[in-house]
């Protein structure tokens, strides 16, 4: 019986991250809220627009680098105590000789 290769079509929209203007939605809304907060607290439209644009550009860069970067950064703080490649703790070994 010959092997028949099976091809499953996956639509591109299923594996593409949900973005607004090229930035992940959560990062975009974070930049938008921080820009609005800066505008309200300082009373400066220029300050609010500047903060929003800087955070928006950072969000676009982060989304282009890795769409799951926000989830990775948030879980990295909780997993730090389990594994840290920068820390080296030597393992104590003891030789036992059979008599």
Q: What does the overall shape look like?
A: flat
Helix content: 40-55%
N→C terminal distance: 61 Å
The amount of beta strand, in percent, is under 5%
- Give Rg in angstroms: 24 Å
What's the number of extended β-strand segments? 2
Structural class designation: mainly alpha
Count every helix, treating DSSP H or I runs of 4 or more residues as helices. Answer: 4
Strand order, main sheet: write it out.
1-2
Largest sheet: 2 strands, antiparallel
Detail the poorly predicted runs: none
Explain the overall architecture.
The protein has 99 residues and is mostly helical. It has a domain at 18-65. The chain is 55% helix and 4% strand. It contains four helices and two strands, in the order αββααα. It has helices at residues 12-15, 25-42, 45-65, 69-79, and strands at residues 19-20, 23-24. A two-stranded antiparallel ribbon has the order 1-2. α2 runs antiparallel to α3. The longest helix has 21 residues, at 45-65. The chain is flat and about 80 Å long. The termini are far apart. The relative contact order is 0.11. The model has no long low-confidence stretch (mean pLDDT 82).
């Amino acid at each position: 019986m010959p092997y028949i290769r099976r091809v499953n079509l996956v639509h591109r929209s299923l594996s593409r991250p949900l973005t607004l203007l090229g930035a992940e939605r959560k990062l975009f809304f974070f930049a938008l809220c921080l820009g609005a907060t800066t505008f309200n607290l300082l009373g400066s439209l220029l300050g609010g627009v500047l903060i929003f644009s800087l955070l928006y550009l950072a969000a676009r860069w982060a989304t282009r680098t890795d769409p799951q970067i926000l989830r990775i950064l948030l879980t990295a703080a909780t997993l730090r105590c389990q594994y840290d490649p920068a820390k080296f703790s030597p393992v104590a070994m003891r030789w036992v000789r059979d008599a």
